[in-house]
Sequence to fold (498 residues):
Amino acid sequence: MLRRDIIISRVLDFCRRTLSGKPQGDKKQQPAATKPAATATASVPKATVSSILPPLQVITRDQHSVSRRDISPSALKVLYRLKDAGFEAYLVGGCIRDLLLGLKPKDFDVVTNAHPEQVKQVFRNCRLIGRRFRLAHVVFGREIIEVATFRGHHSGSEDEESTAPKLKTASLSDHGQILRDNVYGSIEEDAERRDFTINALYYSVKDFAIYDFANGMRDIAARRIELIGDPEVRYREDPVRMLRAVRFATKLNMDIAPDALTPISQLAVLLKNIPAPRLFDELVKMLMAGKAFDNFMLLRDTRILKQLMPQLDKILKQEPEGKAFQLVTHALQDTDQRVAVDKPVTPAFIFAAMLWYPVELRSQTLLIESGLNDIDALNIAMTEVLDDIQRTIAIPKRFSLTMRDIWALQSRLTKRSGRRAFKMLEQTKFRGAFDFLQLRAQAEGGSLTELASWWQQFQFADEAEKLELINSLGREGQDRPKRRRNNYKRKRSSTPDA
Ligand code: ATP
Ligand code: MG
Fold:
């Protein structure tokens, strides 16, 4: 019955398109000449509402491995309740993809033809969220099942004919980027506007079949990240899909298909149009989920890194295997190992590692060019580098303050004479600063290795051993010559509010 509904809807859709004279077929049949130019600024025609989907495949229960045993009971409850209330409802996206790959899904997302208000009527434990596109959250204790209404196309004309209720139609920017995307639609339209073929798999509890709208099963078997439709158009609509391609490739241990990989280096520049808070969120997903190092390498290879962190990218280009690369590698590999054993990780530490050499480089330039003392030069360099990165990636203040602490304490770790080392141990940020020093020692070796091992001994030594360690320093570990320090003090105290 359900299968028939979908087939009928496809036939109706086909007739509507034929009557309105709109082009048919998948992207492979589109003439190359109609493709927009691959430059950041070139404008593209507004996307047409041509079907970019191949024929629907229905994979019956005996032909796939997704079992109700592996699905969250709360998600199943939502599906059954919506079905019993007369609505269509499916599990979709990451959860079906992950179950097919034998992975544990992060969450279970439901789509339905019920409108948010109708969903709210079915569930008492439901709240509506989102201003632009309303979503229903059905709450089961600590678990939330997100229920979205099928989304429609992002072009006006077809929607006018559509019987699907709608809000305002969506619109595109001059670069082809979706600006508004808040139209309700059919399941087919919903599938069409998803990003990758492997994310357009729908599972129903009416017949326990998987509805594969974009050859996702084929690409799961081939372990291939493939966009639905023309990759260039889809990246232009939402440049974040380039980051998602990288993230899914590493997370799922798949390859990005050549036609999806090739345009990225040219289109990465479009990421500049993405709001900085969204890029921070996406990067956190890439760096905190156990595949930070692989993601970093792929971001570098695809030239996305150049767009996101030009300061770091420049240093890496000058010395591809140099100390900046070593530090980032050690930091990200450590992060991945911590995630693997469920230890906490923080974006502050990761971003501190990625931006340490840009800060150091800037600080050295300031020392030479402006004659500032090293503490002031470091402070200014930290501010400049952080201000710079904030324009692209909005690192929340709670993390950027920790980054500053970690960086600033690096120079204090070199000063160990008298009571200084004891005071340093009392610092709440000591652990982070010491871990960071160890990473730098791994990256650079030399005197940093000695410094890191001294602190390693010092923090676990008893009182007598601690004094002995300080005495063993001799002239090392002392402050810079008094004269410069006094100069700095005098300069500070001459400021009006000192
Ligand atoms: P995971 O949760 O493991 O990161 P996911 O596939 O569930 O993977 P989400 O970000 O939770 O990813 O998105 C849920 C679904 O929404 C995706 O599977 C995809 O179908 C769709 N989607 C998300 N972001 C986009 C996007 N930028 N463009 C098109 N579709 C998207
Ligand atoms: Mg998800």
